[in-house]
Amino acid sequence: PRLVRGVRSSLIALTYLNFPLMIFLIIIADHLIVFLFSETWSASIPYFQILCVAGMVYTLNTVNNNIIKSLGRSDLYFWLLLTKRIIGIVLIIVGLQFEIIGMLIAITINSYISFIIGMIVSSRISGYTLSTQISDILPSYVLSIIVGVTVFTIGHYLYLSSLLYMIVLGLLYLALYLLLSYVFRMKAYVMYYSLFMSFIVNKKM
User: Fold this and answer.
1) What is the pLDDT of residues 57-103, one digit of tens each?
2) Could you give the count of Cα atoms lying within 13 Å of 105 in the half-sphere of its Cβ?
3) 26 near 42, Cβ under 8 Å?
């Protein structure tokens, strides 16, 4: 039970930061790539966006893997890793038939399949049930997408330089995300707010 409590806190805290970051990078990808590398690299924008979608579950895969390892189930971890690798290789071989974009989509699909398999296995041995994991992850996922769609829509009406565009959208995204987190009393928001207030109090002392 103590392990599950710790993992739940980590998962909630990670998704609260990782999901909005990846969504935001998808939104500003065209401006970011051109600003950093010039128009020459504009063809890489969709590749970057696809990898951001994969990045949303990258850390979650690590959390579930660590649950299995921490419980001493190295045998289960081996077979889990082997299964993921086999599925990944098959998907990449299929994806390569559609050039780089196909391969990247295959990698992204594999990330989500690996995440689902990891969730199922870790839930069986730790007591951190599948439904609980989903309920811990879903709020940040949904909120990130809602704020992302809103900010993306507003961004269509802004005619600014790339740097200013990213700054304005970044501030807007952050403000909306924190405001809605406060309104809906998100668990992660409460956790971070408590940590922040504790830090402020300790500083004053």
Assistant:
1) 887 888 888 888 888 888 888 888 888 889 989 998 999 888 889 99
2) 10
3) no
DSSP 186: -
The pLDDT tens digits for 168-203 are 999 999 999 999 999 999 989 998 888 888 887 777
Task: Look up tokens 């839930």; give the residue.
Answer: 123
The C-alpha atoms of residue 96 and residue 94 are separated, in whole angstroms, by 6
Cα within 13 Å of Cα(199), Cβ side: 6
Entry pTM: 0.87
**Helix, coil or strand: residue 157:** coil
For residues 187 and 202, what is the distance between their CA atoms, to the nearest angstrom?
Answer: 23
* Side chain identity at residue 77, one-letter code: Y
Distance in angstroms (rounded) separating the CA atoms of residues 196 and 183: 18
pLDDT of residue 195: 86
The position carrying tokens 């809906």 is 184
Q: For residue 59, what are the contacts with CB-CB under 8 A and spacing of at least 6?
A: 14, 18
Token digits for 14?
């990670």
Contact in structure between 29 and 45 (CB atoms under 8 Å) = yes
* Whether the Cβ atoms of residue 27 and residue 169 lie closer than 8 Å to each other: yes
